Amino acid sequence: MTVTWEELGWERLAAGVGRCRLPGWDCTAGLVVGDGTALAVDAGSSLAEGARVREAAQRLAGRRVTHLALTHPHFDHVLGAPAFAGAQVYAAVGMDAVFAQEREELRLDAVRNGLPVADADEAVDALVPPRHLVSGEWTLDLGGGRQALLANVGPGHTAHDLVVLVPGDPEVVFCGDLVEESGAPQAGPDAVPSRWPDALDRLLALGGADALYVPGHGAVVDAAFVRRQRDELAARFGVS
């Protein structure tokens, strides 16, 4: 039985492209439907949440999720990744080292932010480093004329920021936490503030003036919003 994006609580952004705002941390999870393929963008904060995202994505796509792109290595975006068994996982260069060497910090950050200890332990134990590491740009052919461009535009919010651009009318850009709408962008100990405005310049150059920009948290925004946030970050951190 065919379901609509709205029936599952997802927001349709363009033909075959949409996202949902997950409860708890208002984290975005995205979906791009191809011909016989489906690309998920970010995976939620736990194995249970990842499984819910995967199930909804597969109902909307009418097929299993074949690809998963992780925008950056924060728990609310990546700890659901092990629930996407069989998917080809993509991330920025360096995410493999984070998953291999910083697992305890990832677990502690999740617990500090309110994820139950048992859920954090379960997810971190199951976490596997991403197989496909993006150093510049990587075009995924999703079939049926549909492509998605994975671009390593960071560092900025973290040292390993990946964005996903989906050509179309309109063009859609999944920004991860390089852009946040529901509050001021969070700059934790792994942020690279001096480079963040440059990352947003590259993001805007890729997406252009008419794209829909999907933040890691909050409502979809336009290029003018991203440009204002870029200038605010530059002023906040004393960079040009």
UniProtKB/TrEMBL annotation:
<dbReference type="InterPro" id="IPR036866">
    <property type="entry name" value="RibonucZ/Hydroxyglut_hydro"/>
</dbReference>
<dbReference type="InterPro" id="IPR001279">
    <property type="entry name" value="Metallo-B-lactamas"/>
</dbReference>
<dbReference type="GO" id="GO:0016787">
    <property type="term" value="F:hydrolase activity"/>
</dbReference>
<feature type="domain" description="Metallo-beta-lactamase">
    <location>
        <begin position="26"/>
        <end position="217"/>
    </location>
</feature>
<protein>
    <submittedName>
        <fullName>MBL fold metallo-hydrolase</fullName>
    </submittedName>
</protein>
<keyword id="KW-0378">Hydrolase</keyword>
<dbReference type="Pfam" id="PF00753">
    <property type="entry name" value="Lactamase_B"/>
</dbReference>
<dbReference type="InterPro" id="IPR050855">
    <property type="entry name" value="NDM-1-like"/>
</dbReference>
